[in-house]
Amino acid sequence: MRLRTVFLLAAGLASAALGQTNSTSFNLATQNALRACTLLQNSLGSDIVQFSGAEYLAGAENAWSLFNTENRPPCIVFPRNATHVQVAMAAIFHNKIRYAVQAGGHSAMTGWNTVADGILIFFSHMQNVTYDAVSDTITLQPGIHWGDALQQLSPLGVAPLGGRLGDIGTGLLLGGGLSYLAGEFGFSSNSYVELDVVLVTGQLVTANATNQYADLFRALKGGANRFGIVTRYKVQAVHVGTESDKNFFGGLIMYPNSSSEALINATANYVQTVNDTKASILMAFTNTLNGTEIVGSHILTLFYHGSSLPPSIFGEFLSIPSTFSEIGPVSYIDANSILGSGATRGFGQLFGASAFKGGAVAQYTNAFSAWTQYTQTIKSAVFGTVLAFTPIIDAQTLAGQANGGNLMDPPRGNYAAVQIQSQMTMGVLTLPAFVQTARTKLFSQIPRSPGLPLYINECDAGQDVFATYGRFAELRQTYAKYDPLRFNVRFTQGPIGL
Ligand SMILES: Cc1cc2nc3c(=O)[nH]c(=O)nc-3n(C[C@H](O)[C@H](O)[C@H](O)COP(=O)(O)OP(=O)(O)OC[C@H]3O[C@@H](n4cnc5c(N)ncnc54)[C@H](O)[C@@H]3O)c2cc1C
Known about the structure:
By secondary structure, the chain is an alpha+beta fold. It has 3 domains: 12-122, Uridine Diphospho-n-acetylenolpyruvylglucosamine Reductase, domain 2, CATH 3.30.43.10; 129-242, Uridine Diphospho-n-acetylenolpyruvylglucosamine Reductase, domain 3, CATH 3.30.465.10; 248-468, Vanillyl-alcohol Oxidase, Chain A, domain 3 (3-Layer(aba) Sandwich). The protein is 32% helix and 23% strand. It contains 17 helices and 18 strands. The protein has helices at 2-9, 13-18, 28-44, 54-60, 82-95, 146-153, 171-175, 182-185, 214-219, 260-273, 311-318, 332-337, 361-378, 394-402, 433-445, 472-482, 487-491, and strands at residues 49-50, 75-77, 98-102, 118-122, 129-132, 137-140, 158-159, 192-198, 204-208, 229-236, 238-239, 248-256, 279-290, 293-304, 324-330, 349-357, 382-392, 415-424. Strands 15-12-14-13-17-18-16 form a 7-stranded antiparallel beta sheet, with helices on both faces. A 5-stranded antiparallel beta sheet has the order 5-6-10-8-9. It has a 4-stranded mixed beta sheet with strand order 1-2-4-3, with helices on both faces. Helix 10 runs antiparallel to helix 11 (311-318). The longest helix is centred in the last third of the chain and has 18 residues, at 361-378. The protein is globular. Residues 1-7 and 10-25 have low confidence and may be disordered. Bound molecules: flavin-adenine dinucleotide. Residues 10, 64, 100-108, 112-113, 142, 163-165, 168-172, 174-175, 177-178, 224-225, 229-230, 342, 457-458, 494 line the site of flavin-adenine dinucleotide. One of its GO terms (molecular function) is FAD binding. Pfam families: FAD_binding_4.
């Protein structure tokens, strides 16, 4: 059961286009895209612009959510450098072609990293990571996955702020980014030093906190895919130690369903009271289907950047009856591997977000009941569901503000990012209507606490996340400045509301 639960959590030219298995018609948009693809291939070459073949297929089918693997774009661009992205984006812009960008592929929002009748830009050939000791910065190309970045930098004792599972990619930064170091350093994107960004027109700009593109720089900390294509991330290095330095203490505890009430209380208390920057938890309640039976089993990952788990912070969780526990001194890489890599494919995936202040236990209990009922309602269609809480402590918000802030701009005080994950039955490609109805009902039952921003990387595509940002007006203004023709919102899928 442990494996099953962790698994859930982590869990040529015209003929190519005509051969699409799911396309409804060979429409005008596809014809235009094919023309642009042919021109692009002539200028960039057939390694970079592909219409078919093994690499094309691997790119088209790479996405983590099965719902995002069905499209067969007329061509896929595999850039080796920013210039290739510029050339592709300029062609897309001038020819009014639909498009999508894919880095790690882990978006659970259908259509956000894939396209049927347009051009996919896929970063599998841009995976370099380097450390500069003089400036103490790390430079990441957009195609690297966090696990690879950590592995390559580990001998140097440094790491970028990323996520908590190895297979996830750099798209995480554009949505904010929650790591086991967030309490100390803020959202992962608050570690930006400099970004190279290809704007919708194909123009390449370098943005940092003080130059003429400082507004763009801020917007890319939570603005997701709406503000341009990032081709280089330069971020502050964090000195976490090497793989043999066990600078963290913690691990994973699994609990039976009978412990759920105590866990809900402990989670609400943690969110309300803990403000120690070195502490972090991810509390994930999981329901998996065993035949027609729903099995509840709950996972806590808990870490302290130090040599033990302070009882005043973790005591309540440690006293709750558990079924499995693996706790001890660990390296930063160990911590990021504790839930597996998250690479497993083959399931349609959906997310949904809420955000709760600490302390109001009833809000947490209500969410648990609503989620339990939700799983019951949709059990014939799912492998399992998750209700997860990531505390975002006041110190995390302050650390972010000290480093230039972001447009999510949470209010002062602790809160929890709440995530609902729904993993469909393996291989199922269409979302049954009754599941969508149940999801809509669930989201209405677990509204965010007033004033809190939703976390865009874990939202449902229908949620108006930008409107929940503290500096939404500034986000809109910045968008209007960099994309006055609204090309991005008209020609690629992504967050709504700009
Ligand atoms: C198993 C799992 C575990 C997760 N754990 C965490 C976690 O610990 N912390 C956390 O914060 N989040 C976590 N997430 C959520 C994660 O942050 C998002 O799914 C994120 O969008 C993934 O980025 P990606 O590059 O892998 O995905 P992609 O789908 O490739 O990209 C995500 C979005 O960003 C866009 N994009 C990607 N690269 C670029 C670029 N260079 N320029 C412009 N747009 C771009 C894509 O078009 C897409 O819309 C997790 C998700 C999963 C599935």
